[in-house]
């Protein structure tokens, strides 16, 4: 892992419900790359979004984009693609599960916290 | 005199609307609501007022679905009144919906500008601002087409005409477009209530003038405050002020020159109400101290926005003291909207466990 | 006989014994160093996990506050601004920078949030209504995101440290349980082999010495015999040419005998 590799990672990405995305975009993390492909670094998920689309976005943010350092994902959405999130072990980019407005945070489900717990045998 | 024939066409509806007004939640209801521990409790409290509409909600619904359902009730009541309205009341109620249409059109323009599929945007449109030709807007794929062939067909065409070209839609910030439309709409509405033969000189014109003037002033003040630090120039800003209201023309002229919160305060000093608002907000939630309420610290002082809402509710409430007027329809819609906002706010505070600010709702009954 | 199986394939020579001894010493030093490194990392790791646990719990609260401020915007604007926000997002104002921190030779990346100046995609949002709330909400969310970035740094450190500690511990265990015993076994093996060789050599030398002794004794006896025979012969014909004969013959026989012995 060269220094250069994460020097370029200067954006955050977010996969979340509308409110979470709106809030985070307000904070100014939204970025759309230059035309013509104009890739967004955020994905709004609602009940109609199918899991394949979420997985594809997760895949894109974690593996394809080289400019993303942190991926924020709503916990209840992470639950929908739990197997993908759990099997993601790379340190870069970091995947962070965040609570959403309608789904309070549950530490039991967090893949990283579960690792913490397992390590300390709790 | 005006009361002589009012009831021939509009008596029934006035009765209905007054009935609706009595159905609004009272201070006691709100006090009960703020004691709720969960959204389900809140739902139970809302039972008598909203019963059927909330029945289909799942246990512990999200606040947004709660807001959507309460809005549904307003919409269906409004539609009922609208369906029974005839003559100038029907026209008056159409005017009422134009405000929502502006928001919807702005939304669709945004979608078209970014070449999104605007069809999915229809769900996001405010139901009160729905008009028959709205789905047609989705046919347009570029802004020129939208402007030349579609917007012309909408009731809002008059507001575009003369002040916005299709290039403007492309270049100007959507917020400027929206506010230009809104300014034109307010002026038109004002003109309508004051010149329409059935309304001029009646309590309708009187009450509506007060409400609309207040609305115009509020927008002028807000636009000024919010434009600080943006690329909106003073000349452009001036174009967004409605050309009536208590502040017009001296106050708006001063507003157009204001550079900071203090300048705005000076500009509105001529009007007693606003002066009081600014004094109260001077140290608190004014634009001069942004971030004051951020972070959710239980700020006691009310923001300017809150005071405007409070004032609007008081005007709306007093509209019901008048008889033989269409203004009560307008007032009722505004009161109901505020009620929905209050419910959403209380639900939000409960959901986010932020009880210390739960009393920030506005109740006038 | 595990020792025979678990040792390095070396020729049991003195040179490789020296090499093995050096290796054992190196392994022991390495073991203690790595052990210390692992301890330092684990200490750091525990601290990080504790902070993650704390931060994750705190995050719930931070996000709630942020959500409420968004609710405030919805309240003030009187509608949902989500779509407009999504469409007007163009260039990130809030970005992150990765820097590195050195913990016992492990480079831990840490994110640092910074805001670029001058581009504000949402300055106009809520112009007519609720603009102040929008700006406040932005600040609240920016603070929330800062907290999230901090948490992300911790989490990255966690993942990397976890990996590194595993590797280090694996090495420590490998040295402790495989390399050191094996080297010790090899040394033992070499030592025993060398001892064996020593003993063999000693035995051989002894054998040689024995044989030599025996041979010498035999030749001595033979010589004595010859001398006695000669003396007897000389006694028999003492009167004639006895003195010369005696010297030459005795010397020749002796030399011949000796040669044969050496060749054998």
UniProtKB/TrEMBL annotation, chain A:
<comment type="function">
    <text>Subunit of the V1 complex of vacuolar(H+)-ATPase (V-ATPase), a multisubunit enzyme composed of a peripheral complex (V1) that hydrolyzes ATP and a membrane integral complex (V0) that translocates protons. V-ATPase is responsible for acidifying and maintaining the pH of intracellular compartments.</text>
</comment>
<dbReference type="GO" id="GO:0046961">
    <property type="term" value="F:proton-transporting ATPase activity, rotational mechanism"/>
</dbReference>
<keyword id="KW-0375">Hydrogen ion transport</keyword>
<dbReference type="InterPro" id="IPR008218">
    <property type="entry name" value="ATPase_V1-cplx_f_g_su"/>
</dbReference>
<dbReference type="GO" id="GO:0000329">
    <property type="term" value="C:fungal-type vacuole membrane"/>
</dbReference>
<keyword id="KW-0472">Membrane</keyword>
<dbReference type="Pfam" id="PF01990">
    <property type="entry name" value="ATP-synt_F"/>
</dbReference>
<keyword id="KW-0406">Ion transport</keyword>
<comment type="subunit">
    <text>V-ATPase is a heteromultimeric enzyme composed of a peripheral catalytic V1 complex (components A to H) attached to an integral membrane V0 proton pore complex (components: a, c, c', c'', d, e, f and VOA1).</text>
</comment>
<dbReference type="GO" id="GO:0033180">
    <property type="term" value="C:proton-transporting V-type ATPase, V1 domain"/>
</dbReference>
<keyword id="KW-0926">Vacuole</keyword>
<protein>
    <recommendedName>
        <fullName>V-type proton ATPase subunit F</fullName>
    </recommendedName>
</protein>
<dbReference type="InterPro" id="IPR036906">
    <property type="entry name" value="ATPase_V1_fsu_sf"/>
</dbReference>
<comment type="subunit">
    <text>V-ATPase is a heteromultimeric enzyme made up of two complexes: the ATP-hydrolytic V1 complex and the proton translocation V0 complex.</text>
</comment>
<dbReference type="InterPro" id="IPR005772">
    <property type="entry name" value="ATPase_V1-cplx_fsu_euk"/>
</dbReference>
UniProtKB/TrEMBL annotation, chain B:
<dbReference type="InterPro" id="IPR036079">
    <property type="entry name" value="ATPase_csu/dsu_sf"/>
</dbReference>
<comment type="subunit">
    <text>V-ATPase is a heteromultimeric enzyme made up of two complexes: the ATP-hydrolytic V1 complex and the proton translocation V0 complex.</text>
</comment>
<keyword id="KW-0406">Ion transport</keyword>
<comment type="similarity">
    <text>Belongs to the V-ATPase V0D/AC39 subunit family.</text>
</comment>
<keyword id="KW-0375">Hydrogen ion transport</keyword>
<dbReference type="InterPro" id="IPR035067">
    <property type="entry name" value="V-type_ATPase_csu/dsu"/>
</dbReference>
<dbReference type="InterPro" id="IPR044911">
    <property type="entry name" value="V-type_ATPase_csu/dsu_dom_3"/>
</dbReference>
<comment type="function">
    <text>Subunit of the V0 complex of vacuolar(H+)-ATPase (V-ATPase), a multisubunit enzyme composed of a peripheral complex (V1) that hydrolyzes ATP and a membrane integral complex (V0) that translocates protons. V-ATPase is responsible for acidifying and maintaining the pH of intracellular compartments. This subunit is a non-integral membrane component of the membrane pore domain and is required for proper assembly of the V0 sector. Might be involved in the regulated assembly of V1 subunits onto the membrane sector or alternatively may prevent the passage of protons through V0 pores.</text>
</comment>
<comment type="subunit">
    <text>V-ATPase is a heteromultimeric enzyme composed of a peripheral catalytic V1 complex (components A to H) attached to an integral membrane V0 proton pore complex (components: a, c, c', c'', d, e, f and VOA1).</text>
</comment>
<keyword id="KW-0813">Transport</keyword>
<dbReference type="Pfam" id="PF01992">
    <property type="entry name" value="vATP-synt_AC39"/>
</dbReference>
<dbReference type="GO" id="GO:0046961">
    <property type="term" value="F:proton-transporting ATPase activity, rotational mechanism"/>
</dbReference>
<dbReference type="InterPro" id="IPR002843">
    <property type="entry name" value="ATPase_V0-cplx_csu/dsu"/>
</dbReference>
<dbReference type="GO" id="GO:0033179">
    <property type="term" value="C:proton-transporting V-type ATPase, V0 domain"/>
</dbReference>
<dbReference type="InterPro" id="IPR016727">
    <property type="entry name" value="ATPase_V0-cplx_dsu"/>
</dbReference>
TrEMBL record, chain C:
<keyword id="KW-0813">Transport</keyword>
<feature type="region of interest" description="Disordered">
    <location>
        <begin position="213"/>
        <end position="264"/>
    </location>
</feature>
<dbReference type="Pfam" id="PF01813">
    <property type="entry name" value="ATP-synt_D"/>
</dbReference>
<dbReference type="GO" id="GO:0016471">
    <property type="term" value="C:vacuolar proton-transporting V-type ATPase complex"/>
</dbReference>
<keyword id="KW-0472">Membrane</keyword>
<dbReference type="GO" id="GO:0046961">
    <property type="term" value="F:proton-transporting ATPase activity, rotational mechanism"/>
</dbReference>
<keyword id="KW-0375">Hydrogen ion transport</keyword>
<comment type="function">
    <text>Subunit of the V1 complex of vacuolar(H+)-ATPase (V-ATPase), a multisubunit enzyme composed of a peripheral complex (V1) that hydrolyzes ATP and a membrane integral complex (V0) that translocates protons. V-ATPase is responsible for acidifying and maintaining the pH of intracellular compartments.</text>
</comment>
<keyword id="KW-0406">Ion transport</keyword>
<dbReference type="InterPro" id="IPR002699">
    <property type="entry name" value="V_ATPase_D"/>
</dbReference>
<protein>
    <recommendedName>
        <fullName>V-type proton ATPase subunit D</fullName>
    </recommendedName>
</protein>
<feature type="compositionally biased region" description="Basic and acidic residues">
    <location>
        <begin position="213"/>
        <end position="231"/>
    </location>
</feature>
<feature type="compositionally biased region" description="Acidic residues">
    <location>
        <begin position="242"/>
        <end position="264"/>
    </location>
</feature>
<comment type="similarity">
    <text>Belongs to the V-ATPase D subunit family.</text>
</comment>
<keyword id="KW-0926">Vacuole</keyword>
